Fold this sequence. Notes:
The structure is a single chain. This protein is an alpha/beta fold. It has helices at 7-10, 62-65, 71-76, 87-94, 100-103, 129-142, 153-157, 160-167, 175-185, 196-202, 208-211, 218-229, 238-248, 252-265, 283-298, 318-324, and strands at residues 35-39, 47-52, 80-83, 189-192, 303-308, 328-331. A 6-stranded mixed beta sheet has the order 4-3-5-2-1-6, sandwiched between helices. Helix 13 (238-248) packs antiparallel against helix 14.
Amino acid sequence: MKKMSLPIILAVAAITATSYTYNCSDSKTDNPGWLWEISGNGLAQKSYLFGTCHGGGHSFTHEEIFGFEGVDEALSNVKTVYFETDLTVANRLAAKEMSIAEYLGCDKDTEKEDLMPEGVTYESLFDSVAQYQEVHQFLSQKMGDAEYWKKTPYYWFNHLSAYNLAKGYYGNRAADVVLYQEAVKRGIEIGQLESTEQHAQWMGRPNNKQRQRPDIPLKFQATILYIGIHNDNDQMLEPMKEIQAAYLENDTCSLHDVLENQAKNDELNSANPLNSGNSIFPVQSMNQAWCPVIEQNIAKGPCMVAVGARHLLGNDGLIAMLRRKGYTVEAVK
């Protein structure tokens, strides 16, 4: 079996190669960076967009994020900072105060079809005690659900892509969290573009109506879960090192090149049974949902909107969306 598609990890990072629309050979748009100023269209004061990086195994420092030109000054000029969702949850996860299963809402999203049939045990579904022990340790320790056995292997398999995303937060400070902590320290009001529940759906938690496949025998469910778990290794986070380096250069073109090269090396196969279909964020849908919220709040007063950098760029990015609505959105150099 092939490993899970690389976008499972790339979704944590900044932008996608397909969403990038800037011509990096054009000196006017070369390497615009992650901080953008919003003005015009009747705004009394300017606001900001700031592209962040959500982790992927790297713990960002204050010096790294506030080393970007203009970020400190921009933060001093705003009354509110809006993040994608409630970062107190991400803070708790980074501090290891909650399990990944709890973070993903695995204790709240169970339906009847997710439950194991009465009398069937996980031990009986594996060919060896060793295989069972590996699955047991993963679900009880890494996922953090001591009562995992109440749910089918396919339920857990469908949470693997979300697990890999959440793993990027676990014990690490995302760029968003660094900005959040500084804003709190300065007494700046904190807002969010959507609820925690909605964000969990975007980030990869399977849709209940699409999750269960009754035609898949439990023993085969156990097999693909076992294979999927073996894709959980540090090598899957290796590509993130290049992405993080490009992000920290404050260089959209460099990051674009990294992701484009990685995309060329990644074989996407929708027929692969390890592809649960939830590995890539629906960026366009998220941006369309956020844009009216952003407009409403920048009209109230100066604010900073901090979201994953890939949400900013492309024809369906927030920069393009706001420009089409009449705002002036320019990179802060």
